[in-house]
Amino acid sequence: MKNIFILLSIISLLTASTPSSSVYAQNNPQNSSIIRIEIPINSNRYYIVRYKDTKPDDVPQEIYDRLFEIQMEVVNNFTYDYAVLNGRKKYQYLFTKEDFYKYGMGVCDNYANFFIILAHEKGLTENLFKVIGGRRGGGHAWLEYRTENNVYIIDPTWSDDYVYTGGKAKELYRESPAYGKHAFFITYPESRIIFGSSRNHNSYTTGKTETALWNIDEITGNEQISYEDM
Asked: Into how many domains does the chain fold?
């Protein structure tokens, strides 16, 4: 197990408003179940948060629910490490489940690997891929769940409070219905709606890699990718 996630880390180091009607969403951004809410910070400020709270038709309910349990386990026990993002300290390699719980913080690659460890432990890696991509200014790591006809994003980093509140309103965010759902079984067109046109999962195309997680034992090569983690 340790060797699997050493390899993963090495090859992936980069680095209140009315909700919309809820419909089942596949890959049509015009027919999407995106909900918009406002998280108040004080009497004059609030964060606008968009998220998806609908299971896709082609994902089994049991799989959806069990992967969401993993998503919440990760975001409940992990915090984004801004010191690494800002270059004030080195990337922290975490290899075991105990490492993640003990250290309790990291960047996108750590979030993704934490999710992978838990999914591997529960036998839920089938159809899961780890994806890494870069763009000007940094890189990002997330997961995909693929069905016969669709590709869905699972991103525990961007489902924590990092993107919206920068760590400044974590408790308020955790109390909202959006917690853990910003990037959970969303499509790439939906990522543009939720995260905006300037930075979303479609933006990270430079040096993009995809690792199938159910046959990770078959990977033998190591590739060092030097992108800044986000």
From this structure: 1
